[in-house]
């Protein structure tokens, strides 16, 4: 979502509009029944007569008044589906959102529920501001994937509203022209890092048609790059984990980025530009990686998040781009990261049960079908990954690459042990840590210093950031 350089790299405003338009329209994109033949939006069971006054709850979101009205249309649909709960949407401009919530918290006037930045969930939970939502899916036929649960002190304090994982995208025309096999979509056939680099060299070409491993190659006149690995700070954690290191300990209380394995992984990413000459320079400050690489026609393969299918690649495909999806290469362990913005229940509410009922309905795939079918969001409930009928309903549409390719590289990948939660699912102060790390690594990308020297010199500051100290 429109927060920091991270998983939901699209405007929540756009997402909400798409979601609510599809949720309230009657066109063929909005299913009226689930793939199993059940009603698409199950009405919560009514336990009170229609004359009983409804429990009133407020849902906070960031966005304009118009966007809030669209979200209210979805809430009205929920309100009409049962006679016990009435949801009112409170839209707050993005630039004032967290300031407004903090003011409401201090006054004891928080809404019942709302959306919260990924990197703010653990902080708010540690301050006692969020409810335990572990019971939200009790009695349901399916729960969200385990990697999508935000946890604090062993309790689930939020579930991601959608799923996103990191993938490898590639330009099929570039591979075909070079007569190079496509990257593997199956996890058991994933490339090693060395295989990835070797392939990237075959796809990197200078103005004279030379490759990096050929005599006479000129790194200053590259016209096509073989690869790009997104080096936003939060995404770099995937490579640290893949190399046997990490940014944090398993419980998020200790910093591991100073380990040799972690620093080595980051250096390998930098060396794609500095030594291997297969990647363009990126200083890790912008989140438009797919637009700058695959869509711009300058790079043969690039890593980034699954949301790009819906936010940018659909339009590029309509314009003639032939792209594919594959699993990430790996250094020592096969790793991808999950992420997804959080819907929370604030601890000041007097109606946590009703707030959870609303969130469960609101985030159900059937009620966000426009976002799912477009490729912006991936489902959160496990059944969409394991039930073949549901998976076909999700993936068998023209917005996605071929079914078998996407299912293997995305659906199965997200369900595999390779999928791990991004650190903000369990670690506090990730904004300060990632901001500092991004600043520290600036000179690494340009070769002015090494990852080991940069991180070692600033390790105590990174540890302090992890503790919320500046």
TrEMBL record:
Q: Where is this region: Disordered?
A: 29-48
- Keyword annotations from UniProtKB, A to Z: Cell membrane, Lipoprotein, Membrane, Palmitate, Signal
What segments bear the compositional bias annotation Low complexity? 38-48
Stored InterPro entries: Bact_solute-bd_prot1, SBP
List the Gene3D superfamilies: Periplasmic binding protein-like II (3.40.190.10)
Q: Which SUPFAM superfamilies match?
A: Periplasmic binding protein-like II
Query: Which first-to-last residue range defines the signal peptide?
Result: 1-25
PANTHER family recorded: ARABINOSE-BINDING PROTEIN-RELATED (PTHR43649), POLYGALACTURONAN_RHAMNOGALACTURONAN-BINDING PROTEIN YTCQ (PTHR43649:SF33)
- The protein depicted here goes by the name Sugar ABC transporter substrate-binding protein
């Amino acid at each position: 979502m429109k927060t920091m350089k991270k998983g939901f790299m699209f405007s929540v405003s756009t997402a909400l509009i798409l979601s609510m338009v599809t949720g309230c329209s009657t066109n063929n994109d909005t299913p009226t029944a689930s793939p199993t033949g059940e009603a698409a939006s199950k009405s919560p069971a009514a336990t009170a007569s229609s004359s009983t006054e409804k429990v009133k709850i407020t849902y906070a979101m960031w966005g304009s008044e118009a966007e809030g009205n669209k979200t209210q249309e979805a809430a009205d649909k929920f309100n009409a589906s049962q006679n016990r709960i009435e949801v009112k949407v409170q839209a707050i401009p993005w630039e004032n959102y967290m300031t407004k919530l903090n003011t409401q918290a201090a006054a004891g006037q928080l809404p019942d529920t709302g959306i919260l930045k990924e990197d703010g969930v653990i902080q708010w939970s540690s301050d006692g501001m969020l409810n335990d939502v572990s019971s939200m899916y009790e009695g349901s036929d399916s729960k969200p994937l385990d990697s999508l649960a935000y946890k604090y002190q062993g309790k689930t304090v939020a579930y991601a509203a959608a799923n996103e994982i990191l993938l490898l995208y590639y330009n099929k025309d570039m591979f075909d022209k070079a007569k190079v096999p496509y990257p593997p979509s199956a996890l058991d056939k994933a490339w090693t890092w060395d295989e990835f680099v070797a392939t990237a060299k075959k796809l990197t070409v200078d103005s004279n048609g030379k490759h990096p491993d050929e005599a006479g190659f000129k790194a200053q006149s590259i016209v096509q790059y073989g690869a790009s690995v997104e080096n936003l700070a939060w995404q770099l954690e995937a490579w640290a984990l893949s190399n046997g290191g990490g940014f944090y300990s398993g419980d998020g209380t200790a910093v591991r980025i100073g380990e040799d394995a972690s620093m080595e992984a980051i250096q390998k990413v930098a060396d794609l530009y500095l030594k291997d000459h297969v990647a363009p320079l990126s200083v890790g400050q912008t989140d438009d990686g797919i637009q700058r690489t695959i869509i711009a026609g300058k790079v043969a393969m690039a890593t980034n998040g699954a949301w790009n299918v819906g936010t940018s690649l659909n339009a590029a495909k309509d314009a003639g781009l032939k792209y594919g999806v594959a699993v990430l290469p790996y250094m020592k362990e096969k790793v991808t990261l999950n992420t997804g913005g959080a819907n929370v229940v604030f601890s000041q509410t007097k109606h946590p049960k009703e707030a959870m009922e609303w969130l469960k309905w609101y985030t159900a795939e059937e009620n966000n079908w426009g976002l799912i079918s477009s490729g912006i969001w991936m489902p959160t409930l496990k059944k969409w990954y394991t039930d073949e009928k549901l998976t076909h309903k999700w993936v068998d549409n023209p917005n996605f690459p071929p079914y078998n390719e996407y299912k293997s590289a995305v659906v199965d990948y997200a369900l595999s042990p390779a999928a791990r939660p991004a650190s903000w699912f369990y670690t506090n102060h990730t904004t300060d840590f990632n901001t500092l790390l991004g600043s520290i690594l600036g000179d690494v990308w340009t070769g002015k210093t090494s990852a080991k020297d940069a991180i070692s010199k600033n390790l105590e500051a990174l540890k302090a950031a992890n503790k919320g100290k500046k």
